[in-house]
Structure formats: C-alpha cells, structure tokens
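Quiz preparation item.
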C-alpha cells in the first residue's frame, strides 16, 4: 500500500510517500480502507520531534491519527458491533495511508462525506475533554483563544448546545465565522485583553493557539485553575493545566456523531490535499489561521 512516512525528525520535507506493508486489525481493532485523513497540529509536532523525550518513535514512522473510511477487516471480540463495509470515522495510527487500523470509531452520520468526517475525531474528543476539564457550567462565559480552527469550531458549537456563552478570539478575517457559531468575537493582538473585557466577564478560558497568552487568561478569569491550554506545554504557568491525553474517546465519538446527525455540529473543510501533498498539508497546518479543518484525501 501507499503510506506517508518519515525516517528522521525535521520539517515537512522529511515526509515521503512510500510503499509499505499493510497493517492488520488485532483484537478489539478494525482496519479501514482510508478515504480521508484529518490533519492535526499533533501530526507535525510529532514529526518535528517535539515529543521525542516523552514518546520516542521507532523510525521510520507513519503520521496521522484521524481517518474516515470503509471497514475491510474486523479484529477478534467485535462480533456484532461492526462489520466489513461499514462507513466509519475514528482515531488510530498512521492514517495518512491507504489502509489504517483504528482503535476507536463511530459510524458516520448520513449525509457526511468522507472528507468532512475525517475532520471530526480528534478535534471533537479534544473539545469535549477540555470543556469538561475547565469546569465551565451552563450560564457561565467561556473565553476561547484561537477559536476559528477545528477544536475551536467544535468548542463553540458544543458550548452553545450546553447553554454556555462564548467569547472567541481569531484573526480579522474570521470574525463573522465566530459570530455564525454563536460567539461574541474579537481579534487577538495588541489591546485584546481590554477588548475581551468590554465583551463581558469571563468564568473560564481555553488556549488553543499557544501564542503566549496564559498570563492574560489567568488575569481575565482570576484563577489559574480555570485556564486550560492544549498548545503551550513549554509555557504553562503555575496552576494552569496542559491537556493532551485522550479520555473517553468512544463516548466522545458517539456524542459527536449524534450532534452531527441532529445538525448541531458542523466543522467546515478548509482545504483538501492528496497523499502526495501531505508535506504541504502539515506546513499549512503549522502556519495556522485555519477556518475549520484540513484533510488529506486518499
């Protein structure tokens, strides 16, 4: 099969489209013929070696965690739960490939394309996890720094569904997009803290962009325990939590599928790349300023 792989840590140029052995589904796993793979910041962070101390890779290594496709192999222990031919989206490993093994999945809601479906798994799990961890409740206000990307898009819609008000920051071009998702919007950059204060009090805050705003978020909430970052591991202030470990993934995927089916969650696909364009996809992801999701079509 064809697969995107790298033999050394580095920039996007280390990615290569290579011939590789097909993986197979072990117990409790499924294999899918991948139709599309989601592009996430964690993909290029791993490729750059940012996690090599805590999670060293055996190189050469593949890339990608999110995928949507058609089940073509079912591991032991899943009889009656999933079948060959099912259309699913979920989380696994080495998903920039023609075949991938998924550890967690849900059936795709009707009407969703594979490209759209591939953009949901990790971002919806992350959004549900950090909303829960930050402890924001219905009737309170959540500040989301860097709100126009995939995770931010999911956070805004899930919060709205739960009766949580949201203030979102993004670039000037994405202000209307944030408002469409129900947020009070403002731009980041000089004076952003005062602009947020003019929009209202903040009960909790999420840092999704990693742009050195943790001290400001603590000042706005008045409590470091009410701030969570998924992007600034190296700059976490005392009391501010970094959230990077998946939790309750099957439940998160099931909730995402239910919200999508009811028309309460929609994350647009910003751009679609081919497998051969994986390096460009990760470079564009690293550059930021994404509205919605980037995906690789297989």
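Solution:
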């Amino acid at each position: 099969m064809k697969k995107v792989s790298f033999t050394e840590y580095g920039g996007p140029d280390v990615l290569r489209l290579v011939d590789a052995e097909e993986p197979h589904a072990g117990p409790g796993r499924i294999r899918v013929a991948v139709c599309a793979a989601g592009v996430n910041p964690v993909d290029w962070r791993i490729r750059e070696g940012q996690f090599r101390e805590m999670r060293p890779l055996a190189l050469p290594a593949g890339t990608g965690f999110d995928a949507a496709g058609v089940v073509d192999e079912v591991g032991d222990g899943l009889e009656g739960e999933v079948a060959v031919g099912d259309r699913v989206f979920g989380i696994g490993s080495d998903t920039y490939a023609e075949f991938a093994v998924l550890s967690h999945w849900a059936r795709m809601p009707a009407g969703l394309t594979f490209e759209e479906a591939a953009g949901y798994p990790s971002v919806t799990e992350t959004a549900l996890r950090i909303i829960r961890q930050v402890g924001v409740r219905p009737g309170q206000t959540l500040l989301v720094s860097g709100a126009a990307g995939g995770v931010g898009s999911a956070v805004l819609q899930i919060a709205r569904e739960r009766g949580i008000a949201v203030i979102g920051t993004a670039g000037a071009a994405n202000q209307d997009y944030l408002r469409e998702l129900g947020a009070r919007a403002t731009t980041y950059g000089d004076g952003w803290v005062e602009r947020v204060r003019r929009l209202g009090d903040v009960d909790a805050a999420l840092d999704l962009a990693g742009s050195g705003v943790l001290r400001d978020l603590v000042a706005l909430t008045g409590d470091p325990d009410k701030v969570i970052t998924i992007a600034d591991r190296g700059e976490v202030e005392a009391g501010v939590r970094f959230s990077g470990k998946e939790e309750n993934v099957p439940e998160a995927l099931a909730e995402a599928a239910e919200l999508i089916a009811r028309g309460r969650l929609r994350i647009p696909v910003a751009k679609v790349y081919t497998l051969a364009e994986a390096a460009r996809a990760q470079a564009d992801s690293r550059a930021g300023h994404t509205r919605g999701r980037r995906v690789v079509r297989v």
